Amino acid sequence: MSLTLRVVLISIVLAVTHIALTLVVPETGFQSRTLFSLPFSIAAFDFVLIAAVWCLLQRGIVGPLEELSVHLRPAENRLDPLPEHLCRRGDEIGLLALNISQMIRRNRILDNERVQAENLLKQKEEAHRSLLQSMPGVVIRYDREGRHLFVSRDAEVATGISSSHMMGRTQRELGFPEPVCAQVDDAIRRVCENGAYFDTEFSLEGKQGWIIFEWRFLPEFDSDGAVESVLSIGRDVTELRRLEKDYEILFHEMPDGLALHEIIFDAREQPSDYRFLSVNPAFERLTGLKAHDILGKTVLEVLPGVEPHWVQAYGSVVVTGKPISFENYCAELDRHFKVRAFRPGRRQFGCIFSDITRYKRGEMERDRMRRDLNRRERELEFLLAGAGSVLDEEDFNRAAGRIFNKARDLIGAQSGYFSLLRAGGEENEMLLLESGGLPCSVDPSFPMPVQGLEREASETGCPVLDNDFMNGTWAAYLPSGHVNLKNVMFVPMRIQNKTAGVMGFANKPDGFTEDDLRMAESFGRLAALALQKSRAGGGLRGKEERYRTEPAPVMDGFLILDDRGFVLEANESYCRMSGYSEEELVGMYFGELDVAHTPRDTEARIRRVLDQGGDRFISRHRRKDGSLFAVYVNVRHRPMEGTRLVACLRDMGDCERA
């Protein structure tokens, strides 16, 4: 029997039973409404039970039914099972009581299960509501027509509209801007049609100004699998978008290069290469590499000659996560960079680097200049020591030995010699020979022929060098037992445009240079001065004694200065040297004539002369016509004549014009 037919029959039977109870036994006081006032689950007896009641009534059994009615009165809207004595009766009333008690118990169980299910449903709904309320961001549930079914507290804060006012209304009914309404409608339509989530982004004007929301719309399905409602979850990305915009501006405008790379590992999980993912304009400007040419390519594809240590350094950043900072030179680009590398994500590293090429080259230039200055100071120190040898030594051999040793030490040669040419210039007389600790069986007392490179230097008057001597043609001229010569340099000693002797140097560990030639030539001039002094038959010290009692020789200039350095007197020889008259020189400051030293240096030198009694040095003076000439200066303090300084000046030849 179908459920519909069963319900119809039960309804008919209930109606008939009600009429029967009312009409047949009104005098009994049985309250028929007792059955019909119960909940449907209790009042809707099974058809068999109702039929049993009808039969009992037909048979006139009313008393027992009246007793049943007393126990069937509900207390607090509920029925309790009938007493046991009624259920144990062996007649029809007992059977009816037993069935009614079983039905009551069964319905009580069903009611308890229903209550539990309702409570569980309420708990789940409350938990679901709490979850939606506690979710970060704005949560709104829409029906298919876009009406609000649920609104989170964050949505109220963002819009300034209470949830009670929003419930059951669409965006347009709430007065939202039309572009926002159109976007929401389109999103709901897409989700309902496709049954899949949809992401979008739009701006909304709230109490705090315009807010940018990132939205995700999700379908919610009914029991038949159709989209019943749409849940939207939005988050405020206003600050994120501002930061992204700031980053974009920084990325494009920052002066430093910025690049993002992906590290590539080989089969042994060792860093072997890296790929360009993103570069900023500064990177292009600093490196000359264009984004459209390198993005997606590896560094070995772009720069095949890149040094492996770059890949290894960046690989360590990716593996360890520790940022590094270093300076390095990229030979492929011929540039110096200061690099700061960090790990922004898995198997990725970013680089911020500055082009410090100009700074590094400036630093290298400063180092070079510092080395040059130190070298020139050392050269000057050795030259002054050599000049002191000329002045201090009366014997030429001793003077020549000191000059040669200073020159050899300065240049860094291990071996060498000093010789004078004999008449005719075909042979030389060896003054000293230094083998540098190497075996040498040549007797230096025998005259040696002037040949090979030595002859070339002697005849041309110019210094020469050969840094691969033993592999050249000149090695054949070496006498048997001579020291093995890796490299050589010969410097002529010239007097009145003629070669009077030769200084030879050999076996410099790193080879001779043009600077070595220049310095050796200066020492050759000092040796020539020493030889001239020796041949003149007296030293400079003897001449100084004569200067105190006799007028200065024609070849030397002579100035008398006060203790401040101003000229008091000048002899005719210095007037010829300088081109000034004595009247023009008197009253001039010595520093105006001496162009090789600053006024401060001149003042310091005058104080030294006053303290120590004298000083000697090589300098340059300026003539009246502006040309320069080198002078050897010997200054003495003469306190017996009223704190005066006597300067003897010897012309050493013209210099370049100022």
Total count of strands: 21
Please tally the helical runs, counting DSSP H or I stretches of 4 or more residues. Answer: 24
Low-confidence blocks of residues: 1-11, 18-48, 538-544, 546-554
Mean pLDDT: 77
Radius of gyration: 59 Å
> Span from first to last CA?
134 Å
- Largest sheet entry: 6 strands, antiparallel
Q: Helix/strand-derived class?
A: alpha+beta
Per the principal axes of the C-alpha atoms, what is the gross shape? elongated
Helix content: 40-55%
Strand order of the largest sheet: 13-12-11-16-15-14
Strand content: 15-25%
Description of the structure:
- The protein has 24 helices and 21 strands.
- Strands 13-12-11-16-15-14 form a 6-stranded antiparallel beta sheet, sandwiched between helices.
Essential attributes:
about 650 residues; alpha+beta; five-stranded antiparallel β-sheet; 24 helices; 21 strands; elongated; disordered N terminus
